Amino acid sequence: MSQSAFITGATSGIGYATAKVLASRGYRLGIAARNSEKLEAVKQELEMKFNSEVYTYVLDVRDAEAIKQVAAQAVQDMGVPDVLVNNAGLARGLESYEETDEADIIQMVDTNIKGLFLVTHAFLPGMVKRNTGHIINLGSTAGLYAYKGAAVYCATKAAVKTFSDGIRIDTIDTDIKVTTIQPGIVHTPFSEVRFHGDKKRADAVYEGVDTLHPEDIADVIAFVLDRPLRVQISDIVIMADQQATGFMVSKTP
Ligand code: NDP
Ligand code: 8X3
């Protein structure tokens, strides 16, 4: 039977690109996000273009009970996934910490940390029981290099990296692999979400930068998954050519 993958945040940006690449490689997919219409549109596209088997799950990863229900349903629909891509995540705001909105802090922590931890908690026991599985966690260069106005976002991404290392240790006696992907600047709706829908401000982030494309990250994920069993890629840092660290971007190439 073909390989299966469960991807959170598969309706936009990196998650969407990853869904397309994996569908093109014959994976059966479980795709999750909050917006049901977008999920259905992605499902239809993947079915039409790649004749894929796709299951959709409306899920807010901040909801612990919903995660349990969706994971149980996904296992019923497609079996324990061979691959879990913990991609759903976001930044909110770019203010100094003392000025950061409390709701934004909570949303980042609940989505990027709690959600990712609990989605993993829901699927990992099945993987351990089967002695196989690959967990791909979306960290960020922001988790390696903090930058101004992003203390919380950067800390959530540092947590993702440390969490990945921790579960890699916990599953060392199994064939389970854990990979953290840490991209730099990727042009997606990420900045529009960060700036609460302010498109002009979001566009300015990418102006004059030959950014990464979501497909660049999806290709790396496919590469990581294609390695033979003996190879475990723990971390990948991938930046735009114009980047030196997380937020150090040259706009005069
Ligand atoms: P997008 O905003 O394009 O996509 C985010 C996806 O996550 C959407 O599908 C969104 O769907 C989903 N999502 C957001 N919140 C939730 C939630 N609470 N529950 C379930 N799904 C949710 O962002 P990117 O593709 O850019 O980002 C994807 C990941 O990559 C994030 O973890 C981000 O931190 C990370 N990253 C991004 C970089 C970049 O420069 N863009 C660089 C480094 C890392 P919906 O709103 O319908 O729920
Ligand atoms: C998203 C990339 O540099 O905007 O993680 O934080 S950055």
From TrEMBL:
Sections of the chain in a coiled coil: none
Keyword Metal-binding: no
Top-level lineage group: Bacteria
UniProt xrefs under InterPro entries: NAD(P)-bd_dom_sf, Sc_DH/Rdtase_CS, SDR_fam
SUPFAM superfamilies: NAD(P)-binding Rossmann-fold domains
GO molecular-function terms, A-Z: oxidoreductase activity, acting on the CH-OH group of donors, NAD or NADP as acceptor
Annotated signal peptide: none
Repeat listed as a keyword: no
Alphabetical UniProt keywords: Oxidoreductase
Family to which this protein belongs: Belongs to the short-chain dehydrogenases/reductases (SDR) family.
PANTHER family given in the database record: ALCOHOL DEHYDROGENASE
Protein name (database record): Short chain dehydrogenase
Originating organism: Allisonella histaminiformans
